[in-house]
Amino acid sequence: MKHLLLASCLMLSVAVASAAQKTSTDRDWYQWRGPNSDGHSLCTGTPGSIPEGGPKLLWKIDTLGEGYSNLSFSGNQIFTMGDADGKCYVIALDRKTGKESWRTSIGKSGGNYSGPRCTPACDGQTVYAMGQFGDFVAIDAKSGKGIWHVNVEKEFGGKVMSGWNFSMSPILDGKQIVIPIGGDGGTLAAFDKKGKLLWRSTELRDSAAYTSAVPVEINGERQFLVLTEKSIAGISPRGKLLWRSDFPGKVAVCSDPVCVGDTVFAACGYGIGACGYKISGKGTNWKAEKLYEDKKLESHHGGIIVVGDHVYFLTNSQKLVCVDPKTGKVVWENKSVGKGAIGCVDGKLLLRSEKGEGTVALAAASPDGYKEFGRFDQPNRSDKNSWTYPLVVDNCLYLRDQGVLLCYEF
Fold it and tell me: What is the DSSP letter of 18?
């Protein structure tokens, strides 16, 4: 009996350990900006610095086609998008080798800046993605077979603020998929996993910007931040407008807003700069108070990272800044890699220049000042700006530059 009990305990321990490992793996990076929509890698124990000459290249492919789509991961697969041969594709790759598993056409290619911008999301079984002309699709993750397809512009009156096409990414929220589509029917929309429209934010009807919905918790209540050319707003998980304040966006609003406690921080290019908002309330009674604005703090499209009580981003003035989001005060600034995109890994900032050699650097995320832990130049650069964000998943650094995807040991 003791042997049987011991064996049962061992089997249970293995099962629990396997389940924990699976949960950790599946939560690596299954949607835009990761499982928490904040640009923070879940990796720990990564190198404290970038070696001279750069990290070890594990594999490289150059077949993704045109586009700025980033990556999502599920099991042994990577998902992204690209234009080729007159079509827009969702593409699946083998995680270990980069070898293509399948590609599925979802609509036409092109756009103002050719190629898709959306990062697919995957719940382990199904991949969800948006093409640049509003083709919103679900695809079987294993086979690449299409499950459903709707066009949010033609079928739901979706509308984007200006001429750079649909660029938002779907966010998984339990049994629903949340995505800004814009238009008179409501800016933010939620679909079920069969493609049925569940709700729209009928109290917020701005055209969509080039941002995605950001799930946050404020005063203990979950909500989605939505940033448009006119508004910054909080929307409940069922589509009700909780609060709204003016945000005078212009031309192209691209970087997702962030939340630090009860403060929401948003920034745009084209002379708009940054604004901070104090959010208070509960239940159905909410209030947004604008704290400040600084037209010099422009974040074009490289993203904003929260670490501790501060925000970090690469500005249009070619500098990395550390800002106190509650006051708008610039704590420090440094030329770093210039204008570009930002992520976070193991408590450090991962930076990528959009121009020249596409330089990648690792730096401290600290209000004490700028400290760099190495850099390297991306090989195989295209002739386009490297706008796709750098990211680290399962101790691998991924850099996409149009059709090229580089995977490094990290």
Answer: H
Q: What is the pLDDT of residue 64?
A: 98
Cβ(75)–Cβ(26) under 8 Å?
Answer: yes
pLDDT of 99-157, one tens digit each? 999 999 999 999 999 999 999 999 999 999 999 999 999 999 999 999 999 999 999 99
SS3 227: strand
**How is residue 353 written in tokens?**
């220049």
Enumerate residues 6+ apart whose C-beta is below 8 A from 246. Answer: 230, 231, 232, 290
What's at 371, amino acid-wise?
K
> Residues 222-254, buried b or exposed e (16+ Cβ, 10 A)?
ebbbbbbbbbbbbbbbebebbbbbebebebbbb
Per residue in 353-362, pLDDT tens? 999 999 999 9
CB neighbours of residue 12 within 10 Å? 10
DSSP 345-384: ETTEEEEEESSTT--EEEEE--TT---EEEEEPPSS--SS
Cβ of 383: how many Cβ atoms within 10 Å? Answer: 6
Mean pLDDT, range 229-242, rounded to an integer: 98
- Residue 11 belongs to what H/E stretch? helix 2-26
What distances in angstroms separate CA 259 from CA 191, 227, 264, 311, one per listed residue?
25, 12, 4, 9
- Give, in order, the Cα–Cα distances in Å from 375 to each of 87, 211, 261, 311, 384: 36, 29, 32, 22, 21
pTM assigned to the model? 0.93
At residue 242, the 3 state secondary structure works out as: strand
Alpha-carbon radius of gyration of the chain: 21
The number of beta carbons lying within 10 Å of the beta carbon of residue 369 is 10
